[in-house]
Amino acid sequence: MQTKKRNTENKICPLEIAVNSISGKWKIPIVWQINEGKKRPGELLRGIAKVDRRVLNLQLNEMVEDGILVKESFNELPPRVEYSLTETGKKLVEILWKLNDWGKVLISENKIESLS
Predict the structure, then answer these.
(1) So what's the pLDDT on residue 88?
(2) pTM
(3) Spatial distance between the Cα atoms of 101 and 13, rounded to a whole number of angstroms
(4) What's the structural domain count of the chain?
(5) Nearest-5° angle of CA 109, CA 49, CA 97?
(6) Contact at 8 Å (CB) between 70 and 84?
(7) Has residue 4 been placed in a domain?
(8) Which residue among 7, 77, 106, 111 is the one 20 to 30 A from 13 at the CA level?
(9) CB of 86 within 8 A of CB of 70?
């Protein structure tokens, strides 16, 4: 029996794409905050402990490029920017809820108290 050769060169792995889209220390907390409603960068800085403004802006821009967030700029003084979830971002929140439930199971089974 002859087996078919698989073309693995340049093959896109959906799981790798998904993980890369949310990799970054602050991306999940950012999505979690914006899930509550539109947020301005200053609100995110106050709502996420220890995040640096530069890193926050970098990760916000990456998520806009990945289609997870929408950035809305208002033509007013002082300038105002708000971020909200796209439909893709809302689907990500559904997955994060499932991961949250799984994390609770891991905590209960392993008696994990914290990551630090």
Answers:
(1) 96
(2) 0.80
(3) 25
(4) 1
(5) 40
(6) yes
(7) no
(8) 106
(9) yes
| Inside any domain, residue 29 | yes
For position 6, what pLDDT does the model report? 47
The CATH number for 29's domain is 1.10.10.10
Does residue 59 form part of some domain? yes
CA atoms within 13 A on the CB side of 85: 18
Neighbour-count burial for 32-44, b at 16+ CB within 10 Å, e otherwise: ebbbeeebebebb
Q: Is 69 helix (H, G, I), strand (E, B) or coil?
A: strand
Looking at residue 106, its pLDDT comes to 86
Q: What is the pLDDT of residue 1?
A: 45
pLDDT at 64: 97
User: In this structure, is residue 2 part of a structural domain?
Assistant: no
Instruction: Profile the chain (116 residues) by mean pLDDT over runs of 10 residues.
Output: 51 88 92 96 93 95 97 93 97 94 87 64
Task: Provide the domain limits for residue 42.
Answer: 14-110
